[in-house]
Design a protein that fits this description.
11 helices, FAD/NAD(P)-binding domain, globular, flavin adenine dinucleotide binding, 5-stranded parallel beta sheet, Dihydrolipoyl dehydrogenase, FAD/NAD-linked_Rdtase_dimer_sf
Amino acid sequence: MREVRCDVAVIGAGTAGIAAHKAAREAGARAVLIEAGPGGTTCARVGCMPSKLLAVAGHAAHDARAAHRFGVRVPHVEIDGPAVLGRLRAERDRFVRLVFEGLEALPGEERLSGRARFLDGETLAVGDATRLRFRAAVVATGSSPSLPKPLEGLGTRVLTTDTVFEIPDLPASLAVLGGGPVGIEIAQAMARLGVAVSLFDVGHTLAGLSHPDLTRAAAEIFGAEIDLHLGTEVSGAEAEGDGVRLFFKGPDGAGSVRVERVLAAAGRPPNVTGLALGAAGLRLGEHGMPEFDARSLRCDGARVFIAGDANGLRPVLHEAARQGRIAGRNAAALAVSDAASAPEPWTALAMVFTRPGTAKVGASYDAEAGNARVTGAASFRDQGRARVEARNSGGLRIWADRRGVLLGAEMIGPDVEHLGHLLAFAIEDGLTAERLRDRPYYHPTLEEGFESALAEITRNCGAGG
């Protein structure tokens, strides 16, 4: 068996792993990147980029059908499913190719191919032919889609977020299991491309929203295009012809629906099975996950770090990359000393690229906060720019502490990806509602929608003082 030595071993060549490897190298460590395949990062291959490519096609079809609102008549909108998916894959493959080009530029001795497993706290087996001795390691093995038990045994009738973008044509009908960010993005895109979509979720919220006003708005908005079944459990499934019949139980009783395909979009658990983490001396908790510090990413005092989707904190790409950098730098430092930094987490920022879009920023909504928080509200229904563009739906909620210091927000509305960023920067800088309100807001822009929410917080903080 070939033996290789390094300072830092990075397991996984996705967003977090690539960032960790680069950070370790920049810190002067001899780092080795291990990839079991298929590679290309989750974002480029099966996540952010292909889902957005599907979404923009759906939005184009929707905009063409809705152009009559402006006196523009589009007599007929035709959806060419193979062409939609062909462009999606061509652009997706370009993004993946760019990732691979970056990896191929690495010296050969810094890359290993094969599935890694820990033999002890300083040794990895990579495949059957290589043993890698390390001083510190980073686990960045990503995640994989889960398949609900009722869908087992249905073969290609069931799609996952890893396979949905490989279908040759759009299905006539689709059931989406899961109303989180990925599920609702794909569900709306498919519906706008002419697919009859039913969405099932055991919860009562969509797109990760939690404020009651906004969850109701989301159900109303998305329910106009999608057959929603919230608070509903899919209890069984069986093949029927070339499709699937789903059986479900919900608030209105039991029922069933036949669809051509089913998309399982209810989550992506971390890829930690098979790593033999216990052999590295790690204390494992529920589902075989190691205990680790959420700031330094160090596992239970060992010389092992865990970053990206693998740690179950569900970071989106920008956070996964930052986690990789933190883990890589710390692993490099730990390879020669016992030092590890623990930077503060960034202000939380999550978005869903539906139309209207959604965003969550900073501290989550807390129904039990009571008088400790002050909330400001704004609606996009009558907001000037939103009405000009006939995108006047949804609203936002911003919360602050009793001093007016901004804590967090949720929103659903037009272009909220930009509003979300502005609020994230304001929260990161410790601004109060009053200070953020005293900024230049050009007219007419969607950013003016902040004004009423910030004014409400300012008034209520003053009244409470």
